[in-house]
Write a structure and sequence with these properties.
Elements (H helix, E strand, L loop, with lengths): L1 H68 L12 E18 L7 E8 L13 E3 L3 E4 L2 E15 L3 E9 L3 E4 L3 H9 L5 E2 L10 E5 L8 E4 L4 E4 L4 E4 L4 H7 L2 H30 L8 H6 L7 H6 L1 H13 L13
Parallel strand pairs: 4-6, 7-8, 7-9, 9-10
Antiparallel strand pairs: 1-2, 1-5, 2-3, 5-6, 10-11, 11-12
Length: 332
């Protein structure tokens, strides 16, 4: 009898142990399954995120490359200027910078991104290098529609095509007639010429002085632009006035120095041409003056200081029976 009681007691203890083991085993299995599932889910989300990120970067890089391709049709030859616009489906951000590289006359870089969810921008694409263009623009542009236009720059012969990229609206007050005619003729959708009683939402550009809270003031007679947005002043000659107005000061100064090095290269070519045309009894008097303006400059103010010499070169060439160069811009 006692033996049966002991046997039953031992049997009950074994059952209790088995129940406890099952009670312990079940939660462990669930925990393992949850942990393993969480890891798999995390890896899947991470992989999907990386895939989306890579896809966004690829799309942004390709879009930047296509955007740059719009610059080529804007090449002007000797035309007064060309313009076009592009509208993206989503709000986009384009960043520019400019690098002085003496080996390649400097270069610029561009990258692109667009909004994905809500107001958040997606992954920025790879930087695209621009070596043979002179893009006068802001450092960061945002919007859906971007306006592009170009104008040739002569000093006194054609040196470059200036390309301008804009996204903000600009309100020009008391602009000289030639500026209004030129910009209005390009039919840009973001440049307006209101009078002082009209409402214009955008960056106010005033000439000389104004009481309109002007962010940009153009002192045409003194040859400089005061940019109150960045607290800087840049100098201009001729059609560089547009770059001085629409460009970030650092990008403007960089492009001016790049442009001057290109001028120097062209000047050297024209000096070689003088030696060639002499053999045909066609001697140009431009050479001595042209040599004096060759050389690097430190900033736009130094370029403006060369304006009188550049103008003398133009006058000498215009008056010569044997011209060194021809510019349709001057009706020749």
């Amino acid at each position: 009898m006692i033996g049966l009681l002991l046997l039953n007691r031992n049997s009950n203890k074994m059952k209790i142990r088995k129940i406890k083991k099952k009670a312990i085993a079940m939660p462990f299995n669930w925990i393992f399954a949850l942990v393993a599932g969480g890891v798999i889910l995390f890896l899947s989300i991470y992989a999907a995120g990386k895939f989306i990120q890579t896809g966004q970067q690829t799309i942004s890089t390709e879009t930047a490359a296509r955007f740059i391709s719009l610059f080529d049709p804007l090449e002007t030859g000797l035309a007064a200027g060309k313009a076009q616009s592009i509208t993206f489906r989503k709000k986009s951000k384009i960043s520019f910078d400019c690098i002085e590289d003496y080996r390649f006359f400097g270069r610029q870089r561009l990258n692109f991104t667009e909004q994905t969810f809500g107001k958040k921008y997606g992954e920025t694409g790879a930087e695209i290098s621009i070596k043979d263009k002179y893009v006068f623009t802001g450092s960061i542009l945002e919007g859906k529609t971007f306006y592009l236009f170009s104008k040739p720059f002569f000093m006194p012969f054609k040196v470059i095509d200036q390309t301008f990229v804009l996204s903000d609206n600009y309100c020009f007050y008391d602009a000289p007639r030639y500026i209004e005619d030129e910009l209005a003729g390009l039919k840009l959708g973001n440049v307006f010429f209101p009078n002082e009683t009209e409402t214009c939402q955008g960056i106010n550009v005033c000439f000389e002085e104004g009481d309109l809270g002007c962010q940009i003031i153009v002192y045409e007679n003194q040859g400089y632009v005061s940019n109150r947005i960045y607290g800087e002043r840049v100098y201009f000659v001729g059609d560089l006035i547009y770059g001085a107005i629409f460009s970030h000061p650092e990008i403007y100064e960089c492009n001016v120095k790049r442009m001057k090095r290109r001028f120097d290269q062209l000047a050297e070519i024209y000096l070689d041409k003088i030696d060639i045309v002499k053999r045909a009894n066609c001697e140009s008097n431009v050479g001595p003056k042209l040599r004096t303006v060759i050389g690097d400059i430190g900033n736009s103010r130094e370029l403006a200081g060369l304006y009188n010499e550049i103008e003398e070169i133009r006058l000498i060439n215009d008056a010569a029976s044997c011209k060194l160069y021809y510019n349709d811009r001057f009706g020749e």
